[in-house]
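hey m, so remember when u said the tokens were messed up on ur end? i reran from scratch. heres the input so u can diff it against urs
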Amino acid sequence: MSDATDVLDTPVEEARTRRKSVFREYTEAIVVAVLLTVLIRIFIIQAFRIPTGSMEDTLLVGDFLFVNKFIYGAHVPFTDFRLPGVRAPERGDIVVFEYPKDPDRDFIKRVIGLPGETVEIVNTVVFVDGKLLEEPYAKHTATRRRPEDYENPQIYPPGAGNRDYYGPITVPAGHYFVMGDNRDQSDDSRFWGFLEGNLIKGKAVMIYLSLERNRTPRLSRIGDIIR
């Protein structure tokens, strides 16, 4: 009888063992997948959504982006340490960063001036180190201001910044001068100053999804490389 019992119990034990093995394999696979997702999000690439029109027409409200965090060197969480990057931000890069006035908010702008360069804006036209900056991406929609308008508090209140005339001013070491492509609808370096390089999270690289306000997909924008 004992032999018969042993024979009958063996398949049951084997099935339990197989179930435990399969459950363990699935659990390990899920844990590994979650860890990889977290590591990729922290150190390599992260998704962001465009909520405002400050980068129109390059980026539209409802665009969802992949941002490369590896290229400039990602921050190690809960430390002040930053991993070595492939390169520093360059002029023309569209970067996501912590808003200097509120670190809990992420902003996205285009790099215009690099450390050590002199930036000047004359009637909306940008000069870097005295040379005209070609900007086919720049968009202007508002009425142009005159230099004397900025001296009239009824037209332009004190502390409101200088949208169309700025500088010349030299970008400090370790900082950048950034602007939105939609120049008349952008809160950028013209109003709050230079961007500290350590606040930059990464470079916007691709649109992976784009939705109209009514949630209709903009199929033609999906997969677009951001320039």
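this time it looks ok to me. Residues 113 and 220 are 32 Å apart (CA to CA). if urs says something different then somethings off w ur setup not the seq
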